[in-house]
Design brief:
The chain is mainly beta and 252 residues long. The longest helix is centred in the middle third of the chain and has 6 residues. It starts with 6 loop residues before the first strand and ends in an 8-residue tail after the last strand. It contains one helix and 21 strands. Strand 15 and strand 16 form a beta hairpin.
Length: 252
Amino acid sequence: LSGARDVSFFATGRMKDRTLVFYKKREGVSSIFKVLEPIYQKSSTSSSRSRFGLMKKGNTEFFRDFDDFYIPSETYAINLFQNTLAISTARGVEVMTLDKKVPLSIPDLRAPECASIKERIKDQRPLGMFRLSDLEFLLVFEEVGIYVNKHGDVSRAVVMEFVGKAKQATLWGETYLVLVDQGGGFVEVRNAVNGRLRQVVSGRDVRLLDEGMGAGQRGKEGSESVKVAMQHPEWEKGVVVVEMIVNEGLKE
């Protein structure tokens, strides 16, 4: 598969007791998703003789089709959980399972007390949904984060305000929210539970390379990493790739 031709974005994770790869096909405004399963040690080998002796020819299948589904909207990201998946779309965040494929739109902002939150995220693109605990999740938009429960209802009256306007987001462990600014000038790190700003890392052409252990699945801190690329400060054509780790002396 070609990232320039076939894949708009992708995510990997564990679901249905197997490792799966989800990717969005590059096809117009609507979104077609393919689900693939990596296949290991599955090959067919044939032998033929040449002037130099026995020559083996092998053909290994790396992925097999597992499933597919369609979202009638423009989509931006996908996050995987144990039994469900969350897709960031132009209509908000759609949560569904592979079995039923019936999306549920969250957050539910119909209650009068959610009017200010509804207005705050108006016209903002969602960037992802991340699990904070068994009971609470964080929905990340370009300028704010919203806390919701496992049913998609708002769980806190306050929102997490960001310094900049983010283009990428990921969660390290269950503690730190990592945001890349749309201008590519800095990385913003916040405590995902209480919203406090912990660090701002400046750079040029900053972009997130990976999302740790997968797009939203839980894991113990230290079992995953977050890597960021940026332009080298001294070499015009150089790129620096850094791995973000926790300063144990300042760990929360």
